[in-house]
Amino acid sequence: MTTEAKGKLLGVIGDHDTVVGFILGGIGEINHARKPNYFIVEKTTVDQEIEATFNAFCARDDIAIILINQHIAERIRRAVDQYTQLRHSSVAVLEIPSKEAPYDPSKDSILNRARGLYNPEDFR
């Protein structure tokens, strides 16, 4: 069955608990090039490897959404912000909390972009 027939994938970049949780939930896939749609970031993982994986996921035509732990996105913030600001980006990037690090809405690139689109007066 082709990717088009199955639909698009969810990509996950995160700590061990986050990625394993999503894999147990059924998101784990390996494409025709034997590349998985998930990446576990260990304490010894260097930022360049995280950024390379993020960029590779963004370039894949079989991934529609990338979930990334926010504390990991902070390590490659420039790359995440640069990609999410592209108007023609075809992959949605969502920052999620982890067990080890709480979610900070002030650091979320998507939320910050949305804040710039709306005036607080619009909601009164």
Automatic annotation (TrEMBL):
Signal peptide span: none
InterPro entries recorded: ATPase_V1-cplx_f_g_su, ATPase_V1-cplx_fsu_euk, ATPase_V1_fsu_sf
Gene Ontology CC terms: proton-transporting V-type ATPase, V1 domain
Keyword annotations from UniProtKB, A to Z: Hydrogen ion transport, Ion transport, Transport
GO molecular function: proton-transporting ATPase activity, rotational mechanism
Superkingdom of this protein's organism: Eukaryota
Database matches in Pfam families: ATP-synt_F
Transport is among the record's keywords: yes
Subunit field text: V-ATPase is a heteromultimeric enzyme made up of two complexes: the ATP-hydrolytic V1 complex and the proton translocation V0 complex.
Similarity comment: Belongs to the V-ATPase F subunit family.
Role this protein plays: Subunit of the V1 complex of vacuolar(H+)-ATPase (V-ATPase), a multisubunit enzyme composed of a peripheral complex (V1) that hydrolyzes ATP and a membrane integral complex (V0) that translocates protons. V-ATPase is responsible for acidifying and maintaining the pH of intracellular compartments.
Name of the protein in question: V-type proton ATPase subunit F
Species: Caenorhabditis nigoni
